[in-house]
Amino acid sequence: KSRMAINKKPENRAKNSGNNPIKAYNMAILGDNSAEINMYGDVVSRVPRDWETNERIAGFIGLDEFLEDLEQIKDKENITVHINSGGGDLYAGLAIYNRLKALKGKVTTINDGLAASAASLIFQAGDVRQMNAGSNLMAHGVSGLLIGYYNIDDLKELVTQFKAHNKAIVNV
User: What count of Cα atoms within 13 Å lies in the side-chain half-sphere of residue 122?
Assistant: First the structure.
């Protein structure tokens, strides 16, 4: 089968010192009707950048880039998604989940090692879900880090938000 990698224009991607694009995922077209996605990084809304060089920091799957690249394979009949991720941003993970679920073709998700937190949601997008031997799936309720001073009303609002976030996770 032929294999064609999906690449964006080089001038739109930050490069590492080896002059290679830094992405924690890749997509490839495999023949006329199939595609493969490898997701090996943390899921975020936007890939963080080095504050000195403005280069992308490796190890992150950026929602905006991922959805842009997904457009190139969205019409394939069979899409296989390999996942090895500790998770990340809840709503970035939910957006990827929803876009994968909306694809017309058959989506197979394969847990190659770890699908945790937001990545566990992405894993659930598969019409067929496959756990490899020794791989782990970890789902949990919402948690957050609080720094600063909060009054009782602030905390009650946070509890309301956490309950809504947990409901979204349970619905998946």
Answer: 35
Contact (Cβ atoms closer than 8 angstroms) between residue 54 and residue 13? no
Residue 9 has pLDDT above 90, yes or no: no
Q: What's the pTM value of the predicted model, to 2 decimals?
A: 0.85
Q: What is the pLDDT of residues 70-116, one digit of tens each?
A: 999 999 999 999 999 999 999 999 999 999 999 999 999 999 999 99
Residue environment code for 42-78, b if the CB has 16+ CB neighbours within 10 A, otherwise e: bbbeebeeeeeeeebeebbbbbebbeebbeebeebeb
Give the phi and the psi of residue 85 in degrees, each rounded to 5: -150, 140
Contacts of 101 (CB under 8 A, 6+ apart): 107, 125
Continuous segment of H or E residues that includes residue 137: strand 136-138
